[in-house]
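S.,

As promised, the zinc ion run. Input:
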Amino acid sequence: MWSEKYNGIQRWMVRLEKINLEEKSWWSAKDALHSPPDFDSPKTETRTCTTCNKESKLIYKQGWACLNADPADSKLNCEKFFVFDQDTDDKTLEFAPAFLQERTKFELDPGPLVPPIITDQDLVRLGEYGFEERCKKGIVCPECGCCSRRIEWRQWVCENPSCQYLYSLTPHAVSASIAASQGTRKDILLKQEFIKSSIRIRNFSLKGFNVFEYTIPGVNGEDIGFIRHYKSNGDINHLPGGPDDLFQEMQTHNLGLKRNAAKNKGGMFLDLATLQNTNRLVARNEVLTAHYTANWVFLLCPAYVDPELMYQRVLRTSSRSPKNPHHSWRPLMSSSRP
Ligand SMILES: [Zn+2]
Ligand SMILES: [Zn+2]
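Predicted complex:
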């Protein structure tokens, strides 16, 4: 790694070497000959700067220059940084053959290229639940070698269409009290009320809930419906069948949660047809949403966020459920008011 100047701008440069030189590289041309590595020569010449006394390699064909500099802080640069004996154009510098052909023996065990798949035993050892950040990372399929993302909440599914490999951990349900204690955004959200002046707000208590009702205006200012936000409290949360139980159910039932594309939908594979026709490599990377929660609203709709079902659920937490729950509930897009 060294510093250089290009077009007057200072930047870091990195030279990488392959570790295992005994084997032919997978990217070599099929008919290319493989020659065993020569670790003794060529070797890049190194010279010591008479100003800063630091060594720099002779990297460029155009000659030697001190490379002692820090692109992040030019105050640390040697005064003779990138000063060549002759006039040079930093945009046309070329690397010296010895520098390009130098090889270094790698003595350490590089370890496996494929990271090991996390197991249930790992979860126990680390005291984790199976929902942590690293459990959302992709895996390399042990059967076909395909790199597969964690798309489904419940399991890893190999993304090679001709491979059937599935893998899942045994998740441990997080208790509502632990989840609530870790919710750092809760306080921020409680303070935020986003209300346009055209939306009327009514605040009242209903069966222990602190209810905020937002009346939504239509294009002509008439009421077209309302949204009610039932703000719960600790007493309600702990009731049988209440939010705490709902939270546990959501973790143990298969809700079919998955991450969807946030960007470049479907663009995760190399475009092989373009590669063959034009010799151009095209890879449009599909980017998935970071959180499965972003999809919950849609996926939960049929069963959990349906206003009628949700309201019945809310009523179940109350000791005095009305006989007809519809008397005080109308979903959005209904003009009726309780
Ligand atoms: Zn120097
Ligand atoms: Zn596979």
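The pocket of zinc ion (ligand 1) is lined by residues 49, 51-52, 54, 66, 68, 78, 80 (CB under 6 Å). Residues 294-307, 317-338 have pLDDT under 50 and may be disordered.

- D.
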